[in-house]
Write a structure and sequence with these properties.
This protein has about 60 residues and is mainly α. It has one domain (about 15-65). The chain is built from 2 helices and no strands.
Length: about 60
């Protein structure tokens, strides 16, 4: 007669993998939200001021003139 033993214990490696997977999902979601917010701000600036004003402002910010 064969006996099948089913272990329900979770090892520390599995728990660590699960926690890291959740943290990776949270970081990825945060990066996505930041990217969407940046795109929305860029589109808003384009609509409000135009491309030439944005380029002029960028060059002024870099050079200080």
């Amino acid at each position: 007669m064969k006996t099948i033993v089913d272990s329900t214990r979770t090892t520390e490696t599995e728990v660590t993998h699960d926690v890291l997977s959740i943290l990776m999902a949270v970081v990825s979601a945060s990066a996505l939200l930041i990217g969407l917010w940046a795109a929305a701000c860029f589109i808003s600036a384009l609509a409000g001021h135009g491309l030439t004003a944005l380029v002029r402002g960028y060059i002024t910010a870099i050079t200080g003139f």
